[in-house]
Amino acid sequence: MKQDPWLIRNAERLVTILRSPGQIKHLGRHLESYQSDYLFNKPSPWLSFDVIDYLSAQIIPGWRVFEYGSGGSTLFWLTKGAEVVSVEHDADWYRQTQPRLSAFPRVDYRLVPPESGNLCESRLDAEADPHCYQSSDSRYIGMNFKRYASQIDEFPDQHFDMVIVDGRARPSCVMHSVAKVKVGGLLVLDNVDRKYYLTHVQSLVKGFTERRFSGLGPGGPIYLYTQTSIFTKRFP
After folding, report:
1. What's this model's pTM, rounded to 2 decimal places?
2. Domain extents for the chain?
3. Alpha-carbon distances of 130 from 26, 57, 191, rounded to whole Å
4. pLDDT (tens digit per residue) in 41-69
5. Residues facing residue 144 across a β-bridge
6. Of 166, 164, 157, which is closest to residue 207 (Cα–Cα)?
7. N-to-C CA span, the chain
8. What is 5-233's CATH number, 2.40.10.10, 3.40.50.1100, 3.40.50.150, 3.40.50.2000?
9. How far apart are CA 8 and CA 18, in angstroms?
10. 178 near 235, Cβ under 8 Å?
11. Which of these, 30, 157, 199, 221, is most buried using a 10 Å CB contact count?
12. In what order do the strands lie in the sheet with 64-68?
């Protein structure tokens, strides 16, 4: 019988987690997150539990937060008293999320879908190059996320206490975000286990220190193990 590489990989991840005292404590939270509508009923970013706990201890009311990718995370920052600008590319998800945010006055929720046009048609590594504004998702072949990634440009430099990059064209979003984070502020890049996210990003965050988190997060089996980098800005 042919074995499924995806199942094998996730089984290996589960074994690693069960052997780790630092992660097994999150197993109950992970299983709870399989419930439908979990991220809205119990607002949570789609990040590892260690990152969620770390950011919960950092954020204070009045923080200015910008996020690429929306949903339970948007509600989570708002319930912590933050002012949030959230950019979403998916119209269906935007329509599901927007009514849940209507009770909060401190949110600027934007639907910014991709536009037609491949800006780096001949590049083999276009999804890694910040100047290409490209997603690796096959649904967006021939499209670019330049307007999406550049939404943050309208804000002054060093305006945000935290920027979360957990949406599309992530290297491009990082490129536009680095100047907008305050000194002492945080730039969060999720799923850095996808190595191409970091191909060009390391040269963009020279004024930051990096802390890497790995482990369980909310969601289905695909989130048995994920990696997130939190970059803290040391100087402009």
Report:
1. 0.91
2. 5-233
3. 34, 31, 16
4. 889 899 999 999 999 999 999 999 999 99
5. 115
6. 157
7. 56
8. 3.40.50.150
9. 15
10. no
11. 30
12. 107-111, 83-88, 64-68, 160-165, 181-190, 226-233, 208-215
CA distances from 34 to 16, 17, 45, 160 (A): 20, 17, 14, 32
Residue listed under structure tokens 């509600």: 75
In contact, 117 and 145? CB cutoff 8 Å: no
Phi, psi at 190, each rounded to 5°: -90, 155
Q: Are strands 143-144 and 115-116 parallel, antiparallel or unpaired?
A: antiparallel
- Structure confidence by residue, pLDDT tens digits, 96-153: 999 999 889 999 999 999 999 999 977 778 999 999 999 999 999 999 999 999 999 9
State how far the Cα of 158 lies from the Cα of 140, in Å rounded to an integer: 31
Identify the CA nearest to 40 among candidates 79, 85, 73, 78.
73
Tokens matching residue 208: 């930051």
**DSSP β-ladder status, 160-165 and 181-190:** parallel
E strand spans, the chain: 64-68, 83-88, 107-111, 115-116, 143-144, 160-165, 181-190, 208-215, 226-233
Beta-carbon neighbour count of residue 190 at 10 Å? 27
